[in-house]
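re the bet — no i am not wrong, look at it urself. input seq straight from the record:
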Amino acid sequence: QVQLVESGGGLVQAGGSLRLSCAASGGTFSNYAMGWFRQAPGKEREFVAAINWSGSVTAYADSVKGRFTISRDNAKNTVYLQMSSLKPEDTAVYFCAADYRPGTTRYWYIGQDRSEYDYWGQGTQVTVSS
């Protein structure tokens, strides 16, 4: 059983930056691809970014490409989401998620659908003011 705890959310002005962190415990972190999702009020939870076990493969939603960067530190069991040039439409609760992937697909595959993820954090609120 993997536990995920997000931190780093808050209130920021449009154009500003935030870095979210997600600390994992209870499993072998390198056996998991990691993802970030977000959910705005009244909307479905949507994919933001994902990273494979080593950090060699990443994927981003079109809406954040070029502004957000996902990374991980396996020695610290932590995944990060660096968010820059934030817009009011980025306002949402951001969730960290873990996809158990110990086989050969771990080298090249990262999921972008929330159904592919096995464990979720409690979320951290990001609010971008205009």
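see?? The mean pLDDT is 96. told u. also The longest strand covers residues 92-100. so pay up
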